[in-house]
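Give me the fold.
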Amino acid sequence: MSTIKLPTLNNREATILTAIIEKYIESGIPVSSGYIRKYCGLNLSPATIRAVMAALEQKGLLTHFHTSGGRVPTDVGYRFYVNATHEIIASYDPFSDNIKQELLTIVNNVDELLNATVLMLAKVSRMFGVISVSGYQRSILTDIELVSLEGNRMMLVLALDTGLVKSIVLNLDLDIQPNLVAKITQVLKDRLIGYSLKEIQSTIRVRLNDIEMYSHELVQVLVNDCEKYFDLNKNKSIYTSSYDILLEQPEFQNLTSFQRLLPALDKAYLNQHFQENFNAHSGHTLIGKENEDELLNDCSIITTEFNSDIIKGRIGVLGPKRIPYLTVQSIVEKFAEIIQSAL
């Protein structure tokens, strides 16, 4: 993500810019100098306010649709506002006891919890919800199966205590009798179930080296490539809400604009975008062209990290640039706290 160089503002300019942005976020209507003079409590003449607005436009923080119309924020204007207010904690608390209780009742299944959380996040924020899982700290194997496929291929299926299921086609082409597949599967169940994937990676050779079919190619593939097959960190998961909620936003009620955005809401596309643009050293918010993606030029993404004993990742929302940044950041952070306390 490229870093936008922000201009320096004096107090008067910063105050008027903030007032314009917050009014535009609220109404979606370009903000006039008359509104600033009437409602913002500034003891300034109309000419002075217009001069400040012109200066803010010259510095790239505001723009206008029509010569005689009001002003709207640019990406740079939004970025200045977010940076200037990022330490302000919004007082809005999105959680009722019912919401908290509903999420906490499904703590025994991470997959269900994250699905429920992202749907609830969208409902509360009125934006498109996203949860990206970037790492699994602990996953206990609860079941394992070997499934024969057409063409003499074999699939390994792992069920985990987090509720996740991983399936992967093994890198071999063998004609194995069904009774031998069943025998090897039973041995894997007996020797591996109940251990974490990290433990299996480090001890699978010792756990299996005394079985009679240890030299069989199928077993050897599992042993020699255990870090590939008994691992989740390379298979990052993403959870999203329904994108229909974005149709409530005026910016996306034009079907042509909305259809242009749809490819960017695909799970695989979003997962890649999150991996490339968000990490432990990056910011929490991308505004408009900061996304460096033409499909997302008219969107902002607000996120925060979560990190529990079981998983780590990032939770956030995607919406128009005219997003209520302070309130939504507060909502996102509170949902992250729920995930961390639930797991």
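The chain is about 45% helix and 20% strand.
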